[in-house]
Amino acid sequence: MDKKTEDLIIESVIRQLMETQAQSAENNFRAGPESNSRDSGSSSEPNTLEPMDVIGVENPHNLEALKVMRKTSPARIFMGRCGARQKTASYLNYMADHAAAIDAVLMDVSEQFIADNDLFKVKTVVKDKDEYLMRPDLGRKLSQESKDEILQKGEKGKQVQIIVVDGLSSTSIEANVADAMPALIQGLGTYGITVGRPFFIKYGRVAIMDEVAPLLDCDVVVEFIGERPGLITAESMSAYMAYRPDHNTNESNRTVVSNIHRNGTPPTEAGAHLATLVKKMIDNKASGIKLAALP
Amino acid sequence: MATQSPQILQSVGIDIGTSTTQLVFSRLTLKNIAPGSLVPRFAITDKDVYYKSEIHTTPIDTRNRLDIDKIFDLIQAEFDGAGISPNDVDTGAVIITGETARKENARSISARVAKFSGKFVVATAGGKLEAIIAGKGSGAADLSRREFSIVANADIGGGTSNIGVFKNGKAIDSCCVNVGGRMLQIDKASSRITDISEPMRLVLSDLNLELRKGDRISLDVLRRICQRMSAVILECLGMIDPSALATQLLVTAPLRLNYKTDSFMMSGGVADHVYSPRPNMTLEEATQYNDMGPLLGNELANLCRTEKIPLVKPLETIRATVIGAGAQTVDVSGSTILVDEKLLPFKDIPVAIPFVDGIPMDEATIARQVAQSITSFYESDALEKIAIGLLGEQHFSFTDIQVLARGLLKGLEPLVRKTLPLIIVLESDVGKVLGQTMRALDSQLNIVCLDQLVVAEGDYIDIGKPLAGGTVVPVVIKSLVFETKQVE
Predict the structure, then answer these.
(1) d(C-alpha A94, C-alpha A103), whole Å
(2) What is the rounded average pLDDT of the residues B373-401?
(3) What was the ipTM of the complex prediction?
(4) How far is B213 from chain A (nearest CA, A)?
(5) Out of the domains of life, which is the source (chain B) (predicted)?
(6) Domains of chain B
(7) Residue B392 — φ and ψ, nearest 5°?
(8) Given CB atoms, is B33 within the 8 Å cutoff of chain A?
């Protein structure tokens, strides 16, 4: 075989290989169904990923058993493999979920959301996202303008103040608050508990409630805050609550209900449950471990 | 809350069968199994059977019916023996099994037993629940969960065999057939027949045998009868093609058998002899209990061997039903619910299912379908308590919940007018928010709104008083779905 023929063969083999690769990559993207059962981090997420709730193991000994076990955990199990490595679809899902998590942290809660939910917006002393991530202490202090605005637009002396805080996932705030907050307000209403006008705090940490309560002289603060996103979901929200929090409050005084999202505790049901918890706090003038220790 | 200590429920199981009556006491542990920061989730985490009664012969009166007074003396003696007062009992079940003839007075017995023992005791004389309870007590349900397989359990008693089929721990099918070890009673001293039950006459005519009370029976004839009855059990289990006799003996509809059973278990009094058959059994051994139980077990074991049926040993044989009744009947609802405690307990509430394919998110449609589903149950002037079952795991926005609440209130207007309670049983975890939303619409309503429960059309539901500081209620769902020929 001369050099020229050899080159030709190599060239054609490489071309073929590249074509097949491109094709299979395309197929991988096309394979997924239109409706994706996973959380959508944002509307711009490609909807052509393969669903993750399928059994990827080839020729399983007991498929029924795998299906039952698959339902017990949202973790990446029974994804199948190719040799010693994960399949392309698993990897793409991983990359997409990672991207959604990063988006959840870095994006801002939209003005539209704040308007739709009848909130007004205030801010901590944090300047931008970078400072927010690097200086947790600053996320616990309200700026002077914000304090003034809260006193002006908020309501003093109500029993409960609801605050919405971006925390580490703006995505989760946009996904859950519209369902959880009205359920909570309705529940508190059936108990005859008064609620001040809710507002949104940008660049906030959990302990920001310690500044809010003394300012508005309320009994209980319910703080909806975005949880640090993971690869299972970027939409998980927590509700932190405390009875008369102030600068002496420590973490054991806070009660938390976490994992509020559509595949965890449904946001509407969480809101109804929070109403009962808040009533218990007001009745017993306690929160955190003191409340948990009550019979 | 999260740190709440577990609650112990005192449970009683009473099984009044054709041949034997038994009783067990157990302690059920109710515990929050969710991690601290999550919404609580209560479950029964431990079942400790700590007292098992003697196996008593069921008292029968001269007319061959259950002797209620003697049965109560016996139950009282066992309560005394265990040192337990009926007031201490939180939950449990009374199961009255056996052939129809002896069930004539079963109803009066259930009422009396329920009054006798505790706050939330279920009484039943129906085939399906018994079959499921026996399969839970024998360990068949657990085996199917552990091995992710389909397990059938046949509980063979004196007058009936209850068959329950389980997949991944859940009952998927059941039937009840008149095959039992005491359908022919024989005096062991004289080998003379002392009693022939009605279903036994069908077996005899199938075999062209003419036997009368007082006849002396031979081992050969007894063996032929037992072989035929063993075949009927395997026919009902779908292991042999069904015969006309099997159809005649079935008390309920047969198993659907649209699945493949992986393994089989036998429980009940006869089962001991299935798992330890005796070769060359004599007539004296066969009739040692004045019936044919041991020989039926022996012949069933032989037939299973010939038919190569994969038999698995149960945890309990003769006690399977009573242990199931004492430790496995009660379930708990989801932990975020809304109940008016003063209304509870409820017993035998029929369930209506208004929506088959998910809930339409339109107030008028919801109202219309809900109204329809309840009118099919009662004439409007004779309205009674009824539960609305809402199936499916669905995501509801707050707006959806409001639409649903308004639709339900409109559809259930006849109940509201008669100040009957609104009983809603949801599969999705939104019981509390739906209850609160209905209450916000009308603060005078009596509401019991439960979630994380699956019910079906034709079920009956019992709901007990709240446990664990009001967070959950105990429930028993009595499914009658598969019972089309049930006689009571």
Answers:
(1) 14
(2) 85
(3) 0.80
(4) 53
(5) Bacteria
(6) 7-125 (3.30.420.40), 140-314 (3.30.420.40), 336-467 (no CATH)
(7) 100, 145
(8) no
